[in-house]
Amino acid sequence: MKSFASDNFASVHPKIMEALEKANAGHAMAYGADPITEEAEKRIKDLFGGEPEVFFVYNGTGANVVALRCLLHPFEAVVCAKTAHINVDECGAPEWMTGSKLITLPTEDGKLTPEQVQTALHGFGDQHHVQPKVISITQSTEYGTLYAREEMKALADLAHAHNMYLHVDGARIANAAAALGCTLKELVTDTGVDALSFGGTKNGLMFGEAIVFFKKELGQHAKFYRKQSAQLCSKNRYIAAQFNALLTDDLWLQNAKHANAMAQRLLTEVQKNKKSPSRNPCR
Ligand SMILES: Cc1ncc(COP(=O)(O)O)c(C=O)c1O
After folding, report:
1. Where are the beta strands (DSSP E) in the chain?
2. CATH number at residue 101
């Protein structure tokens, strides 16, 4: 069976399976206190530059929820596109687990613009109004569109000008970097992103994502929120080993380029085979 429905239908990359097999030897400290996890944290830090805080979780919804819990109080709000995965496809987990409101904005293409976001930035200091605290974008978006680096920077600047944070749902951030031809450091760290849900599952892993905080203080309570959110993996070496393989010899980039090329091929073939509108047989 071949399905084009989602990258979640795809099998695991052989190098990831190999890494899982290799990690499956003997005992290791639990809950991320093992050397494989230490190596994966270092690899992620090297990839993004600087000294970001890294937390591994099981899945994408978990990454978004734990990241947002770290950025918000329940009286604060997240501004996001109406089409955002956190709004549409997470069964209300972000609202339920943060206690915060999502302020959703309609978009043509799944992308927020600073002008649009600006319309939601009011009521600061008013006790009757939720306090906008996070702008959350998805890169690449649920529509397969991309934010240019300048567009991300503009949203980060807007957030920071209002004492807010920019969160990126990067379930497919690798695809975005591959398509834009830039490094993850250029795309994420250098544009001023505060917190990233760094996708692994859609880039060849069996399971596993990482939350990356680019300001130390944002990760301060992350380990507690992660545990409370049931996202702490006791045998974390198996998530970490997958990331180590993904971040060796740019496997993440190869996988993303391949996925992008296949998506492009699918588009070309679908367009080629699109039936022309049927003629009226009576004429
Ligand atoms: C953009 C985006 N964010 C987050 C997720 C959530 O991932 P998961 O299904 O692992 O919770 C998905 C899953 O398809 C997604 O497409």
Report:
1. 53-57, 76-81, 101-105, 131-138, 165-170, 195-198, 209-213
2. 3.40.640.10
Query: Is residue 140 in contact with ligand 1, taking CB distance under 6 Å?
Result: no
Looking at the whole model, is its pTM more than 0.85?
Answer: yes
Q: Is residue 4 part of a domain?
A: no
Q: Which residue among 8, 89, 196 is best mutated to probe the pocket of ligand 1, counting the most ligand atoms within 8 A of its Cβ?
A: 89
Any ligand 1 atom below 6 A from CB of 168: no
Confirm whether 142 is domain-assigned.
Answer: yes
Tallying the residues shown for the chain, one arrives at: 283
- Count of domains forming the chain: 1
Q: Is the Cβ atom of 138 under 6 angstroms away from ligand 1? A: yes
> Ligand 1 pocket check: which of 68, 169, 196 to mutate, most ligand atoms within 8 Å of Cβ?
169
Q: How far is the CA of 20 from the centre of ligand 1 (A)?
A: 22
The rounded Å distance from CA 60 to ligand 1 centre is: 5
Q: Which of 20, 25, 21, 57 is nearest to 234 (CA)?
A: 57
From the alpha carbon of 64, which atom of ligand 1 is closest? 4
Kindly state whether residue 119 falls inside one of the protein's structural domains: yes
Q: Whose CA is nearest to atom 4 of ligand 1?
A: 60
Give a yes or no: residue 276 inside a domain. no
List the pLDDT tens digit at each of the 283 positions of the chain.
888 888 899 999 999 999 999 999 999 999 999 999 999 999 999 999 999 999 999 999 999 999 999 999 999 999 999 999 999 999 999 999 999 999 999 999 999 999 999 999 999 999 999 999 999 999 999 999 999 999 999 999 999 999 999 999 999 999 999 999 999 999 999 999 999 999 999 999 999 999 999 999 999 999 999 999 999 999 999 999 999 999 999 999 999 999 999 999 999 999 998 876 555 444 3
What residue numbers bound the domain in which 67 lies?
30-271
Amino acid at 275: K
